[in-house]
């Protein structure tokens, strides 16, 4: 019954990304065979240093947008962890086709390869952004029919729909995890990197998008991965959907305070006037984690610990932001 | 405030289709200028017989999948009615890329052309299929977060998300109408055509997909168009979403009875055993029409009248099914 079994073969897309590479390491340590796929557009080979030393890891440089032979890589695959995506919520407005291509169409390509090679299980990294501006907090998985506010959220919603249609049509099973922002080792984009980059250039000044009162929930990548394992072990429906988040939020202002303490600096901070940091930003993201918690999962890091460990990682790995 | 104003210029995609051509005729009769676009893959030039005689109608044969110059056609357009789509729910399982290409990607292309030419209003034909197998009947617009059961529904959901993201990003406005199946003059696909084709070939036998107990709501195309007008006149939010349907359902068996009465034949009927007619079919579609009704709209044709007028149209226009 459990879908989390050592000695299975997993194909991980986006394997050199933040969450992907952490997942790969975890699976390898638990004696899975792992086929990693990345186009290295944002993924980093350095994140695969451990993986590349393992005999149960194979890496393929593949661009999922164009790959017509993807199904050949899936011959002996038991389960696909599809994490490859444009993961930056903010740039949709400038380039409205990116999310369609890198998320929606790529997910179709992955599903089609699965169908052609008869792979029946997929784990998908969706996002709390699919709820748009929900009117229900903490937002449960069965919240009212959402209205999209970003190209990123819209594309992930489209991916979810595609996955569900494939499950219905071809007897596949899916585990769809709607993430809040994830923090921790190998974090490479998002507001902490943005702040950190600014402060490297000029430690005396920090400009913040939005009024700093956006309230968001964050989850440590270690807790994110343990939740994926718990979801796979404990839920075996045709379509399994789980929010992954932390039972609480912090203001952007709070996280800035923690970052500055860690960096031991005290810049002048300038806030914007808008409640949204950018077009499509959601001023409040707080997902209900009751469903995944009911399977026995519990996060082990607070939001503050997540922010601090991210800053520590960036300090020790300045090459990431260069 | 009203968005339904004569002498405006409308661009209608899918203008030679069933609903599109009826819409074009209505707009022309109400003194709109209409630019019609169709690739004639399923659209029929015969449906534009009236339109082509009018000086306020221009027709362009364009395939929206590939058109890079679409925005040039939108120069003086006030509002886009985007009806072009793969409208057949059933064939997704055989060709899972059709709905992605003809619905999701085409809708992106239309929105992108609107952005480039600064057109700010879009009317979109979505579908009750986006609710998947809802657990709430009659299903309201804010039903719980849906799970998709068909490639068609998934693609229309993706279109809705794209439209919403464009509205958020570029100050557009949208009217999204979630249709039940539409009946009436120029109906060219769906179960009545399927039955009619079978009965032309062999009036002694009728094979039905599913057990005939699927319960569905249907709406006459005239009522569909009047609802679009009412929605445009009466609702002016950034994103306006309305179910369009009939406050009641019929079983497939009922509609077969009406069809056979109209044709004055009495074939042997063979039903399937499944509650779904095909993979992705929803055994019950019944949308709440409270929201559009609250603006003063009321359907003027019963489901039975819709079925009968469709059969009458097919009898008088047998070329449609050939």
Describe the structure.
- 2 copies of one chain form a homodimer.
- Chain A is an alpha/beta fold and 322 residues long.
- Chain A has 2 domains: 9-182 and 219-244, Rossmann fold (3-Layer(aba) Sandwich), CATH 3.40.50.720; 184-216 and 248-321, UDP-galactose 4-epimerase, domain 1, CATH 3.90.25.
- Helix content of chain A is 36%, strand content 19%.
- Chain A has 10 helices and 14 strands.
- In chain A, the strands form 4 sheets. Chain A has a 7-stranded parallel β-sheet, with helices on both faces. The first copy, chain A, has a 3-stranded mixed β-sheet with strand order 12-9-14. In chain A, strands 7-10 form a two-stranded parallel sheet.
- In chain A, helix 5 links the parallel strand 5 (121-127) and strand 6 (173-179).
- The interface between A and B is large, with 42 and 42 residues.
């Amino acid at each position: 019954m459990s879908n989390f079994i050592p000695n299975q073969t997993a194909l991980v897309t986006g394997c050199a990304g933040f969450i992907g590479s952490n997942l790969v390491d975890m699976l390898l340590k638990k004696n899975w065979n792992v086929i990693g796929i990345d186009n290295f557009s944002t993924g980093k080979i350095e994140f695969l240093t451990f993986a590349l030393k393992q005999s149960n890891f194979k890496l393929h440089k593949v661009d999922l947008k164009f790959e017509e032979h993807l199904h050949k890589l899936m011959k002996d695959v038991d389960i696909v962890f599809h994490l490859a995506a444009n993961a930056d919520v903010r740039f949709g407005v400038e380039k409205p086709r990116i999310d369609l291509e890198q998320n929606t169409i790529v997910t179709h390509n992955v599903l089609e390869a699965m169908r052609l090679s008869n792979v029946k299980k997929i784990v998908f990294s969706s996002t709390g952004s699919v709820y748009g501006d929900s009117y229900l907090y903490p937002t449960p998985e069965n919240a009212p029919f959402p209205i999209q506010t970003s190209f990123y959220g819209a594309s992930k919603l489209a991916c979810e729909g595609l996955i569900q249609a494939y499950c219905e049509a071809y007897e596949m099973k899916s585990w769809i995890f709607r993430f809040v922002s994830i923090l921790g080792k190998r974090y490479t984009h998002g507001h902490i990197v943005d702040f950190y980059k600014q402060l490297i250039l000029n430690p005396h000044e920090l400009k913040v998008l939005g009024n700093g009162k956006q309230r968001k929930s964050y989850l440590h990548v270690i807790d994110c991965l343990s939740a994926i394992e718990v979801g796979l072990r404990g839920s075996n429906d045709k379509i399994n959907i789980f929010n992954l988040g932390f039972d609480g939020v912090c203001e952007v202002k709070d996280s800035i305070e923690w970052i500055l303490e860690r960096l031991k600096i005290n810049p002048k901070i300038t806030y914007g006037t808008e409640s949204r940091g950018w077009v499509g930003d959601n001023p409040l993201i707080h997902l209900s984690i009751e469903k995944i918690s009911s399977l026995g999962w519990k996060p082990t890091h607070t939001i503050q610990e997540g922010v601090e460990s991210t800053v520590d990682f960036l300090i020790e790995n300045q090459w990431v932001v260069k």
